[in-house]
Specification:
The chain has helices spanning 28-33, 93-100, 104-112, 119-136, and strands spanning 7-9, 17-19, 23-25, 44-46, 69-71, 76-78, 83-85, 89-91, 142-143. It has a three-stranded antiparallel beta sheet. Strands 1-4 form a two-stranded antiparallel sheet. Strands 2-3 form a two-stranded antiparallel sheet. A hairpin with a 3-residue loop joins strand 2 and strand 3 (23-25). It has four helices and nine strands. It is globular, with a radius of gyration of 14 Å. It is of the alpha+beta class. Helix content is 28%, strand content 17%. The termini are far apart. The mean pLDDT is 79. The chain has one domain (7-143).
Length: 149
């Protein structure tokens, strides 16, 4: 099935993940950080020139600008801890550079910004998801060329 590389939920405006078996869905990390998302079904709103208000989010640091990369990845999860991921991961230009250079501590510094209070509670889970991403990545990043700002 062909689908746009980025979509967000019309209801909560959060970015959505795609998988062949589940379709568009809220990312597991977003569900873990904000369980209220579970109270509605994701309704995709696609990025297009006619819909410029749609915002893509970096799956590594949550940046909302220059989201120009998509990493293919198998679905994975940890049912015991209630998290997982479906489909590819979006990355901003900065995180893409750090991923390619294997600079995960720098990505963590970016991801911690604005989350200093909750990072002790969520940091281990996020690092665990990044480790699973590295194990389940299925190929090189694809440049989407969507944003240049």
């Amino acid at each position: 099935m062909t689908h746009p590389p980025f979509a967000r939920c019309k209801t909560c405006k959060r970015s959505l993940d795609w998988s062949e078996d589940r379709g568009w869905d809220h990312p597991a990390l977003a569900l873990r950080l904000d369980p209220s998302i579970r109270h509605h079904h994701p309704e995709p709103e696609f990025v297009s020139e006619s819909n410029p208000t749609t915002v893509a989010v970096c799956d590594f640091c949550s940046a909302t600008d220059r989201i120009n990369w998509r990493y293919p990845c198998k679905d994975f999860g940890d049912e015991a801890h209630g998290w997982g991921s479906a489909g590819g991961w979006a990355a901003c230009d900065n995180c893409h550079s750090y991923i390619e250079a294997d600079m995960w501590t720098t990505i963590e510094r970016r991801a911690r910004r604005g989350r200093e209070v909750v990072w002790p509670l969520i940091g281990a889970s996020i690092r665990g998801m990044w480790a699973e991403f590295r194990r389940n990545r299925t190929g090189p990043a694809h440049f989407t060329g969507r944003e240049t700002r």
